[in-house]
Queue: 2 jobs
Job 1
Amino acid sequence: MKEEFEKLVIAGKLERAQVDPLVQLTTSGYCMHRSWGFGKITTVDTVFARFTIDFKGKAGHMMDLAFAADSLKPIAKDHILARKHADLDGLRQMAALHHLELIKLVLTSYQGRATVDQIQLALVPDVIKDDWKKWWEAAKKELKKDGHFQVPLKKTDPLIYQVREVSLQSRLLEDFRAAKGLKARILVATEILRNMPDLENRATAAAEVIPALNLEIATHQRTQPAVALEAIFVRDDLRELGGGAPIEGELSAASIWSQDLKLGALLEQMPAGKQHRTLVSFKAANPERWLEIVRATLNVVPNKLCRECAELLIHEQHIDALKETLAKLISQHSASSELLLWLAKERTDAFADILGPEVFRAMLSAMERDQFMEKRSNRLRDFILADQQLLVELIGSADLEVIKDLTRALQLSPCFDDMDKRSLLARIVKSYPAIQSLISGEQTKQENYLIVSWASLERRNAQYKDLVEKKIPANTKEIAIARSYGDLRENHEYKAAKEMQKILLRQKSELEAMRDRARGSDFANPRTDLVSIGTRVGVTDLATQQAESFVVLGAWDSDPEQGIISYLTPVAQALLNKKCGEEVEFEMEGGARKRYRIDQIEAYQAPAPAADAAEEQPTPTPAAA
């Protein structure tokens, strides 16, 4: 084609400098345009001096040869883009069977180097349609063992193909020698450690790396103790796998801790994967003081480190000390938002005796303190809003007055905007409808009150006290004991105790709502010109002409044998406010209807119980309110 292009130069349709680019384009048959991307040259028309090119989404595009020479980049036939166009099935088979051959093809297409992202962009989804991450992990293991590839430690650095084969050990040691600074050397040393099983001679590698690390550990001991400690961990692991004895005079983890460092600050500087080991090394270096310091550290570190500290305390059989610390910080409202966030996320039955309404109070205090901090965090607030059950669970063991106080505190809190407050308050109302009036600001209407006798109210209070002070605490202990038996999925004792907890808490909520609505009365001096609460009513059943008598008393009073009925029953509701001589009709349970005539109304006088039997009387069954 060169001769044809030369003729076009003579004819004045092309520039001399455009001939060679056009020859390259026609020889390869593939090209790249900066806007339209990859294309295949389908025809070369020297009469009209133009190419016909199939671009993606732009097939059969006509392009002037002069413009093509200046705007198109030739793509070789063995380039990954050309191979995808010409032999996609062959590439897919290569991806399945020959990982390194495919990666080599991609790298050579891009001058021998490409980042992981560039490789992924070239192969996904055309060549690799399934899980790229899984494919790449398998390929990376092969790459590290092959001497032709330099695998970078950072994802953003390019993967390099080299014709000269270099062993994995030689390559890693060269990287270690070239690394600048202890942090960079730790990174390479960690990679050496990870590849120890595939090295030619572990002892030789360890013998070179360990002394070099020791020199830098000594220089970083005081200026960067966290980096020095991380290097000590890597050094000790290399020695364990590579063999060899400790070098005389080298620094240990105990040497770092002997500088009286702040545990929390150093923990935060350590990589997440090394934080647990850091805590263990601190414990070993401070056998007498570690417990006290770790407990104090709980309140000054992020929630993830709170978990690490707590797990160490639990593992070392100090869970009681952990709970004591938590209880003290919560009661004093001095717990940090990060510690409370960890506790909220944890919230297992092991901490059931701590989790309660005071935790939510402490959360509000912590979030209010955070508002005045330069580096304040909203993580606790966001978690409270996101976890639909947290607030309800924390206040589940509280009595109604405590819940009211918490509701007022939440309404006044500056930590939540109006929309978020409404969301949280709605969760409380859903479980405790009795506080709706507190939130809405409306007074409870008289008809929502329950008029009860003092005796029945006393029985309800005793029932509530027994529930809160005996049954619920006993159930909490049962849960903790059952939890210690192991696997919760097959732990029937644990499941039964948890079900009982739901029943007891529901009973508690119901009793609180009832007590909140109750208004005690001795029913003295009731009106007798009409039927009212506290009167005995004589009636005649108009269907049978039989005389009957009812005593209308409080919502929780019922003794059918004595004719005592609650004012909430259908018959009492029909009789109330009616006068002697009036007839009433009502529907009984089951649908039967009754008609009564009121014959007599008088004040009810309760019989005085015998002195020796007062304590033995059975508790009347309360009517359903």
Job 2
Amino acid sequence: MTASPAPSPALARLAVNTLKMLAADAVEAAASGHPGLPMGAADHAFVLWSRFLRVDPSDPSWPDRDRYVLSAGHGSMLLYALLHLAGFELALEDLKAFRQLGSRTPGHPEHGETPGVEITTGPLGQGFAAGVGMALARRLLAERMNTGRFHPVSHRIFGLVSDGDLMEGVAAEAASLAGHLGLGALTYLYDDNRITIEGATKLAFSENVPDRFRACGWHVQSVDGHDHEAIAAAIEAAVAETERPSLICARTHIAHGSPGKQDSAEAHGAPLGAAELVATKRHLGWPLAPAFHVPEEVRAFFRAWAGARREAHAAWTEEFEDWARTHPKEAALWHSLHDRQVPDDIGTRLLEAVPRKEAATRQLSGAVLQTAAEIVPALIGGSADLAPSNNTALKSYPSVGPGLAGGRNLHFGVREHAMGAIMNGLALHGTAIPYGGTFLVFSDYLRPAIRLAALMRLQVIYVFTHDSIFLGEDGPTHQPVEHLAALRAIPGLAVIRPADAEETAAAWAWALRRRDGPTALVLTRQAVPRLERAAAFDPESIERGAYAVRDAVDPELIVIGTGSEIAVALGAAAIVSDRTGCRVRVVSMPSVDRFLARPAAERSALVPPEVPAVAIEAGVSRGWGDVVGRGGLVIGLDRFGASGPFKQLAEHFGFTPARAADRILAWLGSGAR
């Protein structure tokens, strides 16, 4: 990678001051925001963008563009100012609308809302870890594509991280894995301004950051974050280092150039204030009016900058087309990965692959996954050190590791926090459909990343096994009871708890086809029976969220179950029907959220509101009222579990057909509804 020529010192200073003042003016106009980081980090951000970053503002989706991750998302105005000056589709009026309702410049960067924003950031540490995922995706793509003279994968992942990012545990986990894997295409500039909201970082943070990252296997440098030549030299050295990720510790001053707020916590999360803004402009020799001033020399510089990058993009495209003609196999794979192609008959093929037998749904999922990997090249994933338990290993493919090539099995180690965020980075890179496995109870560790995946509408698949108290002897620390309700509460996350082989295969097929959000597959540890259905299974039942597994004309009672509790529901329904003669419809509801998203008429046809309804699930009852109605019965578990063999737990907590039937009969006898 060859750096672009440096602008003159005077022009560079003018451009940096433009970035600072655009940020300060926007925060002042919004009466909220964070001016300190953009002003302090403007020097090293400008050097990176002006001399190294390879992007094309006229085509923000160029596959081989460099990625820039602003992990410190509170400094969003720095990124918006850069995007505007660089020529992305972000007007000066958009900067003036910073933090306003409906604007393209929200308080923290949001992927999909603003051209050029690669990732939604704000929760500290998440961007750092997701950038590791992008670098991992880049490495895996390069291993499959970079053959011959031309290498179609030559981009890098750059980012800005803050003190707060490095304090968060998710960043520590991701840094450890990045160093282990030797992700040499990753370079982070650490904006070491030593200020957080409460004051100086020394209040709570005194570790030796360079030594910590060296211990994790990173290439580490320290520079003056306002010295352009030192910054450029450090970036050049980082780019030259191909075996290790790089951290450049750039010592900066928050609110650099503000005579009254520099190095002050007051500049972290509040406007400079009218008087200080005037003082800062005078100190920098900046016009007091108008606000949002951009000198024509800076405009001209960035026009030329953008033109050079369009030319680089055009040259890459020409070489890529030649490469594709001479490497047709690799070119076909390239398009398959970038399109995340899934065959139209995926549902049929996965249903054919799943064993029709009594088995744990985690085992059935593992069988389905082998076939899915064969026919979906973009599918890649692993587990947080639980692959033998989650059944997530791809048996026909090697592992991804240091010095290994061609693998599709990821080993995240005991790092659930990082796994979730790294999966987001893999998905954002655009060449992978990532999946990751752990126990359902540990979904708590992934929750911030799951929430961001849902917010960004990413195609990410979570494989959560050991889904209830029926994992048994490990006891309540490992037995999830509130987790299904907690996951269902996340907007945009599809939670699917399949009951048998057919539902498991259909759930995987639906998750692989889904492009507008993440999916959680919730699977059993214990064996479940294969359902005996009156009619052939319809795979589209997963899309609808629910269907009648045993129907009745004009039902007098509806019994609903999910996952392993379908067997309980069927058994209980048979007992109730035998004792009372009432007509009972049994509904399998693998996805409560998908069912509740259906039109009201469709929901009422399956679960008529005038018919007494019962839901059975070995988890907290919260949320089920939306399905069974205010007068319905929920047989759940509104307490923690216990340690013991799962069959004893089922009897103890009332999740057997006989015990459930007794509850239903008593409820009906008391005048249900």
